[in-house]
Amino acid sequence: NVGSYCGSLSSLKASVLGSIAIKECLIRVGLEGSDVSEVIMGQIFSATEGQNPARQAAIRAGIPIDVPAYQINMLCGSGLKSVMNGYFSIKLGESDIVVAGGQEIMSRAPHAIYLRSGVKIGSCNLVDTLLEDGLTDSFHNIHMGIITKYYIFVLGKFKFYVLSFLLLINLAEQYKISREEQDYYACKSQQKAEIAINAGYFDKEIVPVTVTTKKETFVMSKDEFPKFGTTTEKLAKLKPAFIPSNGTVTAGNGSGINDGGAAVVLMSEETAANRGISPLASIVAFAQVGVEPKIMGIGPVEAIKLVLKKANWTKEEVDFYELNEAFAAQAIACIQELGLDTEKVNVNGGAIALGHPIGMSGTRILITLLHTLERTGKKKGVASLCIGGGMGIAIAIERK
């Protein structure tokens, strides 16, 4: 499940959501906790969550205490990097079966204050760790939404950073994406998600979560972030979120601040065969790249190009792409630069509709891709995310 900011899941620790996902994975595959060699979970906001939340999630899920677990922080790429590391661990012969995933309760990110050395005189300011550790570029001290503003309109001034991979194109001219285009893209994301939810396409991906508060106990069995009935007219009424005077990024055409957990089970083809397990897909290739932090949203362009090269695939032979929608403008620009068929991208909606729990999203889009390929009988898929600080990550998978 994906919860809204300060919504139904906000009272839980991230490790609780992670443990639910891990436990359900093992049940569905028919494994015991003792079969697992290693657990790897992405998570960014871990202040006040206790030591090594990945280890907490593993133990809560019934993984034996002699099985190691660790946490990854690669910002938005964490949930996919955990899968990458699990793959490498198996390839190197260090592990036999790995559980990899991501967990995040952005609603619980605390405010912090530096008082170790004391305060002699003057005021003390609380730091919002949600912004400081997750949503603000550390190199330029700019919120990600404002980076998107730079990305669309000002990048011509910074084009010397990216001459090698953007063919000397003045991106300010190529990607001058209007507010109307962004709202239209966001509306389509919401509409596709609404259709997919009503058709039950996400049912296999979701595990019901029982939440007990002081007032009640309830079961959450559906994502609560999608906005059914979204129209471009409604989106057009929203005020700019970051630059009031002439900004184009709004709460409606950017991804959400969300809570959620997800996990997958990885093993070699030989191990799967020996255990009589039919895998959803095989990993064909991974890619990760670095880009100028001020245009971090372009990361998927180079990551997807590289993963296609490693897989020896053309972009046309890929059946579906899952491209994390940090912002509508970012997603539109990546689709344009790569020349992707929009009918193949985020066919069930993306993060604008479904939400973006930072440490979990990489695993979430991979799981969505796996089930989309299975449901449609298609073979090849690519999932990719942009990453704060100027990076991109991608994976290519194939059903047999």
From TrEMBL:
One Pfam family cited in the UniProt record for this chain: Thiolase_C
Domain Thiolase C-terminal, first and last residues per copy: 278-399
Entry keywords, A to Z: Acyltransferase, Transferase
Domain Thiolase N-terminal, chain residue ranges per copy: 2-149, 170-270
InterPro entries listed in its UniProt record: Thiolase, Thiolase-like, Thiolase_acyl_enz_int_AS, Thiolase_AS, Thiolase_C, Thiolase_CS, Thiolase_N
Active site, UniProt feature: 76, 356, 386
Pathway where this protein functions: Lipid metabolism
Molecular function in Gene Ontology: acetyl-CoA C-acyltransferase activity
Family matches, as SUPFAM superfamilies: Thiolase-like
Similarity section: Belongs to the thiolase-like superfamily. Thiolase family.
Protein name listed in UniProt: THIC protein
Gene giving rise to this polypeptide: Acat2
